[in-house]
TrEMBL record:
This is Uncharacterized protein. The lineage of its organism: Bacteria, Pseudomonadati, Pseudomonadota, Alphaproteobacteria, Hyphomicrobiales.
Length: 222
């Protein structure tokens, strides 16, 4: 496993002790679904992507702009903002744009951008701030890719989510409806706290996570 991603070993080890007979493959698959629900609920995983935008990318017959290539292990689930990146930061201009397809964005108008195109017809750099979630259940070692701070800061919430999903399974040695309800409540409360904390700007450092350069040639497994 790359050092750029968490292993969730402590989470998995703790879950194994509480889930007698649970298979590792099932634990890791359920961990993926827990992480997906966590990111979809909280919107805490964000990054900024700068792309050159041409006139043909804008307007009624626009061409979509691909923000994250297929090889990246994440999916854009929402677009927060799009703005022109110029030399004068005090003159940043916000651009109307919409996320209409996974990992693709549409810029509505060229007019707000045209005056920044020098020489005429050259591209203008637009910074897109987006919200991410996990994609593809497993990597080569069966662990879902996501930033380190998730395990470091929200490990307890992820643990509750994993125990909730596992205990809710029927006719298993570890089936436990009361336990599932307890951990499900804890998981949802943790998600609500994380979302509220992010919205109020109280997260400390590192959550505008970018993909490490070394990942670009790494092959994912399924």
């Amino acid at each position: 496993m790359s050092d750029d991603y968490p292993t969730f070993e402590r989470t998995l080890d703790s879950a194994r002790m509480q889930l007698n007979g649970a298979l590792d493959g099932v634990l890791k698959l359920e961990l993926y679904w827990v992480l997906k629900e966590f990111f979809d609920r909280t919107w805490v995983w964000r990054t900024r992507i700068t792309k050159p935008v041409y006139q043909q990318n804008c307007g009624p017959h626009y061409k979509p702009i691909e923000l994250i290539p297929d090889q990246y292990p994440a999916q854009i689930i929402s677009l927060i903002s799009a703005r022109i990146v110029g030399a004068d930061k005090s003159r940043l201009v916000h651009i109307p744009a919409t996320l209409e397809l996974p990992d693709r964005v549409y810029v509505h108008e060229w007019a707000p951008i045209a005056s920044w195109s020098q020489p005429l017809g050259s591209p203008v750099n637009i910074e897109f701030e987006v919200i991410l979630s996990v994609t593809d259940p497993t990597a080569d070692d069966g662990i879902t890719y996501c930033p380190h701070w998730v395990e470091q800061r929200h490990g307890d919430t992820i643990m509750h989510g994993l125990l909730y999903r596992m205990m809710a399974q029927v006719q298993k040695p570890y089936s436990n409806l009361a336990g599932a309800q307890f951990h499900g409540t804890k998981f949802r409360a943790g998600c609500a706290y994380a979302k509220n904390e992010k919205q109020h700007g109280n997260i400390r450092g590192g959550q505008a996570w970018a993909f490490p350069q070394t990942f670009r040639t790494r092959r994912r497994g399924f």
